[in-house]
Here is the input.
Amino acid sequence: MPLVFRFTIYFPMKSLRLRSLPHLLLALVLTFASVQQAAAQDAATVKKEGVTPDATAAATPATVAAPAAGGGDAAAIAAGDALFKGNCAQCHAVNEQVVGPALGGITKRRPLSWIIPWIKNSSKVVAGGDDYAVALYNKFNKQQMPSFALSDKEITSIVAYITSEEGKPSAATAGGPTAGSVGATDGTAAAGADGAGSGKYMDILLIVLVVVLIVLVVTLIIIGNLMKDVLRGRKDLDGRDIEILDQRFDWGKFYRSPMLRGIVGTVFALVLLYEGVQSVMAVGLTQGYQPTQPIAFSHKLHAGEHQINCAYCHTSVYKAKSANIPSANICMNCHAQIKTESPEIKKIYRAIERKQPIQWVRIHNLPDLAYFNHSQHTQVAGLQCQTCHGPIQNMEVVYQYSALTMGWCINCHREMPLNTKDNKYYDNLVKLHDTKNAGAPFTVSSNGGTECSKCHY
Ligand code: HEC
Ligand code: HEC
Ligand code: HEC
Ligand code: HEC
Ligand code: HEC
Ligand code: HEC
Here is the structure.
């Protein structure tokens, strides 16, 4: 066996040669890319939850202590975060007393079997004579914490969220109730700051990793060259050994290699395809768009639980082309009395004081070239709002349910029969249609509803 080959077995010579430089570089780039990807993903989840990675880890034991939570995973914490911000943040912060006590360490003070009934109905617990509850109630000047119709699971997720936030500077929660003007929510700003913080942390980690990798590559090259020199000094090398030893990395060959071309070609094609699909998808397609609104107005609460008619607020939806967004005065019909102390409601008062409209973010928006008329669809055709807008009465925050593309309009016009009942305008047309093509449904399109000029100016 030639010497170099033997050498290769004991020392992985091949991997130490200069030849392996491109491989190492490739590995480096790939590692870098995957770490960056992971970092981006981490940052995204962190941003969503407002929790840094170590805090998520710290939260896990807490939910082991509270098995009813159904797993102390990030999802439960995220759900708890949302529930906390929606229900509790006006009076509580985790690490700071606001209206009610700081909730950090609550699992150490009280068992879950106490916390759950407390949140569901605290006055019942106080009335029941629970010593701790009565003392706390008196300490907080007999202020009544409201009752919450939350499920056990929802409460455990709030507790999981609280535990995950324990001991952290409480910018997000503390700012919640007081700061924040119409047009910007504190929650989003705080979450953004949080994301930025953890992004920095990942950056440092990345830099350290890259430095370590570079040091590794350089060391390997040096060792490789050293060993080559040692081998060159020996006299007992045969022809093949010398050939291997003197082998230089042939860049020309490398560039011309079909493998490299194949890889580069494939990557290029994939990128092109991805970009292409993205740009095609982007044409007017905003389905699922769900911006954060300046006030945490909930259709689920108003249109769902309290069954307020859509047209009570969207007054013009049966009469006009567009459905209006209600002015603050309509809110005041009720909120002059209801929930006057809520920070969200105070935003309405502030808007009125400043004589500025509430800056709702528009969700549905057809391009100017298309004509759409609400009254034609709601009043004349008798369509339900939900046909196009989805289950609005269940939406905490409204999102765009339908695609709102031209194809979406046309598909319905092709299939939907006209609502001709009790509509004198259609009487003659129906007769005409029935004599010409009896049996065929009298759809919107058979009445010209797919003509370009009907929808395009
Ligand atoms: C309107 C203000 C208000 C809201 C909203 C509120 N709380 Fe409270 N909470 C209080 C007050 C005040 C106390 C102190 C006890 C008392 O006075 O009844 C308290 C006490 C508590 C305690 C006991 C704390 C301890 O140190 O033992 C827990 C747990 C708690 N609240 C959880 C919640 C959760 C979870 C929510 C949201 C689902 C919530 N609270 C919403 C005002 C509020
Ligand atoms: C108490 C008043 C109120 C009631 C009742 C109400 N809405 Fe709204 N609606 C609003 C406000 C305020 C907005 C703007 C903020 C938002 O998007 O949440 C809005 C927004 C919307 C939007 C999105 C508008 C856009 O920006 O594109 C749709 C769609 C909508 N409502 C449909 C409905 C339907 C359907 C119902 C009945 C099931 C209903 N609303 C009941 C007040 C109301
Ligand atoms: C027909 C009566 C009515 C109208 C109009 C109305 N609301 Fe409400 N709103 C309610 C009721 C009832 C509640 C639930 C109060 C409760 O939970 O005790 C509520 C709760 C809320 C809450 C939650 C407050 C909190 O802190 O829990 C917000 C925010 C809110 N409304 C915003 C609005 C806005 C913005 C408008 C105008 C676009 C509006 N409301 C119009 C009846 C109304
Ligand atoms: C046939 C489908 C369809 C039906 C039915 C429908 N909408 Fe819409 N809605 C739309 C479209 C499309 C838009 C976007 C209009 C635009 O951008 O010009 C829209 C927009 C809105 C907006 C935003 C303001 C505006 O006019 O642009 C509100 C609010 C709204 N709809 C409420 C309602 C309510 C309430 C009902 C039921 C009474 C309803 N819609 C029924 C398709 C529909
Ligand atoms: C869920 C079904 C449905 C969807 C979706 C829908 N429409 Fe319609 N549309 C109807 C019906 C039904 C009528 C017939 C109303 C009548 O009797 O005049 C109609 C009528 C019309 C008319 C009047 C046609 C005529 O012959 O005078 C126009 C314009 C129109 N729609 C535009 C649109 C546009 C633009 C969109 C998409 C943004 C759309 N529609 C989406 C069901 C729909
Ligand atoms: C039922 C209503 C309707 C009819 C009929 C209709 N369109 Fe459209 N069209 C729309 C809507 C709504 C959009 C906007 C879709 C979007 O934003 O994705 C649109 C978009 C378009 C666009 C794309 C514009 C752009 O921004 O890319 C073109 C081109 C177009 N329509 C041409 C036509 C032609 C040609 C006809 C007749 C054969 C026609 N449309 C019939 C509703 C209609």
